[in-house]
Amino acid sequence: MSSLVRFSVLFGLMLVCWWALSEGDNQAWWFGVPLALIAAGLMWRFWPKSRFGFTNVLTLLPKIIGFFLWQSWRGGWDVAKRALSKNAGVNPVVIDYALSLPIGWRRDIWLATIGLMPGTLAVAIEGNLAKVHVLDKALDVQPGLVAFERLLLAWR
Q1: What is the pLDDT of residues 85-110, one digit of tens each?
Q2: What's the DSSP call for residue 115?
Q3: Are 13 and 47 in contact (CB under 8 A)?
Q4: Which of 5, 71, 150, 154 is most buried, with most CB under 10 Å away?
Q5: Order of strands, edge to edge, in the sheet holding 129-134?
Q6: Is the separation of the CB atoms in 116 and 72 below 8 Å?
Q7: Cβ distance 136 to 89 under 8 Å?
Q8: φ/ψ of residue 128, rounded to 5
Q9: pTM of the model
Q10: Contacts of 74 (CB under 8 A, 6+ apart)
């Protein structure tokens, strides 16, 4: 990816962030555009340029966001079904899940995000074992936990 394209993408992302932060206020652009230029310049300068740096973010971030949105929808649907049914069918259990994610930001994102998956919540971590509360032991949560961990492992 050329430097100009890379900088343009970063600048566009920073403009979108500024637009969201300023709630679309057109009078704030005099401050936002220079700030976005500075932020994009710093990111362009210090963000890794390798295949597993910037390019990897552009390919994996949409997958992670899609996974996040899909699991949020599934979790909401499951809660709605249980709330509206006469028999909620709740049989909670705490399972041990062996993490292969290294200590750091990937593991933190995994622990914070799995609470959006249907019926799951990380309640503790002991070494490489995550204690995961599952709302109903009939729920098959293992494939979702593994899939999300693999997505995060691919991000280098």
Answers
A1: 887 778 889 999 999 988 888 888 88
A2: G
A3: no
A4: 71
A5: 93-98, 129-134, 120-126
A6: yes
A7: yes
A8: -100, 10
A9: 0.60
A10: 117, 118
Cβ-count burial 54-68 (b if 16+ within 10 Å, e if not) = beebeebeeebeebb
What is d(CA 59, CA 62) in angstroms, rounded to the nearest whole number?
Answer: 6
Whether the Cβ atoms of residue 154 and residue 55 lie closer than 8 Å to each other: no
Helix axes of 29-46 and 3-21: crossing angle, nearest 10 degrees: 140
- Token couple for 25: 């206020």
The residue type at 81:
K
**């006469």: which residue's tokens?**
86
Cβ contacts of 43 within 8 Å, gap of 6 or more: 10, 14
Q: Torsion over CA of 106, 121, 142 and 135, rounded to 10 degrees?
A: -170
Rounded Cα distance between 156 and 153, Å, is 7
